[in-house]
Amino acid sequence: MYVPVPTMALEWHATDRDEGRALTTMRLPFAVSTADADSVTTELHAVMSPLLNCVITRVGWRWIFRNDDTEPAETGSNTQVLLALFYRNGERYDAFYLPAPNPDYFETTGPYAGIRLDMSNPTVVSAIEALSSALEAVVTPSGDPFPTEFVAGGKVI
Amino acid sequence: MSINIVNKADAPEPPYICELVSYQPEATPFVLYGLWLKSQKYFWNSPADWETAKSLLAQVGSELLMPCGIDIVNGLDRIYNLLDVRLAGIERTVTGSGTSDDPFVYDPILYQTPEIFDDEPISLIGLATTGKRAWKNLLDGVTSPDFADSRSFRDQLEAIRAILADTELDGDEIEGILNLILLALA
Known about the structure:
The complex is a heterodimer. Chain A is an alpha+beta fold. Chain A contains two helices and six strands, in the order ββαβββαβ. Chain A folds into two domains: 3-66, no CATH class; 81-156, no CATH class. The longest helix of chain A is centred in the first third of the chain and has 15 residues, at 34-48. Chain B has helices at residues 28-38, 47-64, 69-88, 124-140, 153-166, 171-185; strands at 93-95, 105-107. Helices cover 51% and strands 3% of the residues of chain B. By secondary structure, chain B is mostly helical. Chain B starts with 27 loop residues before the first helix and ends with a helix. The radius of gyration of chain B is 35 Å and the shape is rod-shaped. At the A-B interface, strand 4, strand 5 and strand 6 of A face helix 1 and helix 2 of B.
């Protein structure tokens, strides 16, 4: 199966007076730095704007990575089940949601069987530690660091 | 009846109060869905409200997965056991990890009604009982396993007085003997 080369796309969305919409895309290498992407975006925006008889309403960046050559599990459902991972940093809480969690990684006994992430499972513990480590560099839209103290994970239906 | 599900709201600001409630864990996935839904930005009046609400709702969601009921029960059992050892002198062993799957198991069990064993020396009641026996032995010569000498304090003083009366010691010598007795008693 064809797998597209991963790319980073700069996108300009434009609207004319008749609500006609257009999209202009510039593709850059997947590994481009955000500083370079920002520079190219700003320069091209300045060049394009005087040439247009419409309004640029939205500018977006997308890093596009596709993996079409694997088969999803038959029992998985992105639209019906989520895994909520709750994090805390002092008084601030946040949640990270993943689609279609593997049912093997939920508790199997007790009142939270099939509901709560099984923290006695080594695979789960490793994944949570790695995820928490990765989230240390993440900043929320308000500029606050993303909380990295994992609290609990559970199924969302 | 209908409800506007995208009605915007101000987020409640901290500090928050905390209450213990009865809750059915089976409902957790559905409640988490509701919390996730309400965590979307279009339900809140401002970005600041959204940030505050997201944190609050995430806190609630995480706490639904971290019930404290069993911790409270375990804490109460520990207090019961501690008091039982100190008041009644009943020592227990405990096994388990304190989870709902592997609860703490006390041996002997935690009794529904108190059992008092007043001769257990490690209990407060046992210590008080021992002290009472000591006083009764000292004052009245009542014997018990710990205090087998039936001579009371009065009896022993009378014996000393009788010995001194039978001797031909002078006053200074008697005073010297009395001082030795006082030193021994001290």
